[in-house]
Amino acid sequence: MAAIIQDAIMLFGDSITQAGWTDGGVGARLANVYSRKFDVLNRGLAGYNTEWAIPVLEQCLANQQDQPHAAKIRILVIWFGANDATISSSPQHVPLPKFIENTKRLVNLVQSPESPYYSPSTRVILITPPPLNSHQRPARDPPVADRTFEITKEYAEGVKEAAAATKVSVVDVWTAIWKAAGENEASMSAYLSDGLHLKPEGYAVVYKTLMKTIKEEHADLHYENLGSVFPSWNLVDRADPGPSVQRIEI
Known about the structure:
Pfam families: Lipase_GDSL_2 (PF13472). GO terms for molecular function: lipase activity. InterPro entries: Iah1-like, Lipase_GDSL_AS, SGNH_hydro, SGNH_hydro_sf. Residues 11-205 form the SGNH hydrolase-type esterase domain. The protein is an alpha/beta fold. The chain has a single domain (8-244), classed as SGNH hydrolase (Rossmann fold, 3-Layer(aba) Sandwich), CATH 3.40.50. The chain has helices spanning 15-18, 26-33, 50-65, 96-111, 149-166, 173-180, 200-217, 241-244; strands at 8-13, 39-44, 73-79, 123-127, 169-171. It has a five-stranded parallel beta sheet with strand order 2-1-3-4-5, sandwiched between helices. The radius of gyration is 19 Å and the shape is globular.
């Protein structure tokens, strides 16, 4: 039985998404501003690439279809690339052309009328991986040279290519953090904890860039333009509260 009564924003990605519930994380920020409007579902999968993500998203979408009265995913945010962009000897590596095709397939699971999971009411937003700070990566224990600045940029461009091909919104986190750091790789330590994962300051850039995209391209789903699912307390009929606190479609 479906227990969720609010529609949702679903974050689907790797460890950078998974950590979105941490203090200052993008998931926590979204949950705060969308309180009483949309639930925020975090489906971050640490270590996953797009190849492994496809069957997971299929399961998530199939499960939703099996519950006809379940809440709808109104915004699906897809955020992969950091693991796909590992060096070719890594088990996480996905070649760039395949990564782009996988990203388009993730979008089309929801967007294509030919998909068994087609959901015309769901808006899809892609996020690029953040830039990599190679100066920080060797400081890990043990040191791991598993990614490069240049290759990660190529995968960020691949996300933008997939977004253009599928006609969905894209949030260019790579460029946003690069510019915030003054286009200086070493300075990105202010936004990245280990050269890859985000500090609260990095998530702040992601949140700001994501909300700008929602406001400009999906204004009807921006939190400022949504009412609450349930009415304000001062509208409750104290004599007979039941009928006055019914769910409101937003």
